[in-house]
Hints:
The protein has 5 helices and no strands. It has helices at residues 50-64, 76-80, 85-119, 121-129, 134-167. It has 2 domains: 1-81, no CATH class; 85-170, no CATH class. By secondary structure, the chain is an all-alpha fold. The two termini are 42 Å apart. 54% of the residues lie in helices and 0% in strands.
Amino acid sequence: MPCTTVVGIAEDAWQRGSLTDDQPFRYYLPLDQYRPVRGFALMLRMRGDPALSVEPVRRALQAEMPGQSYVTVRPFREIIDARPRSWRVGATMFVAFGALALLVSAVGLYGVIAYNVTQRLHEVGVRIALGAKVGDVLRLIMGQGIRFALAGVVLGSMLALAGSRWVQPLLFRQSALRAE
């Protein structure tokens, strides 16, 4: 290969295969050093809606590269959109099932507290009859409910930490243990 000019360093680009495959090293050439190669791609960074720029870019490239029979211009989002789709579906399912689990646990906690209050209704009546203030009775019942909730949070956190090693392979360049 003849001498070329280094114009900069770019971030990793995933172009072929899945997002988790190791990608080979790539290099970019300035347009004036371009030599026709199979699979040549030119990437442009644009401001605004790229769909509005497709036709002007196609005409400009066709004028610069008259030997090319046809120049295809597509927005980058359109090229890579299908690759992470399965990841997005999986993430959406995790969120949906997490929200459902939160709803079920809230209803379950409400049921446990309501059952406990029903069981202690006679005791609450006696306390009020003996002069306990409504705030004291409410604090007694709410305190027990908060203890149930805290026990559930602690137990759920321990189970989540234990299960994170099975979730880690499903995450793309993210940690299962900490949010970034």
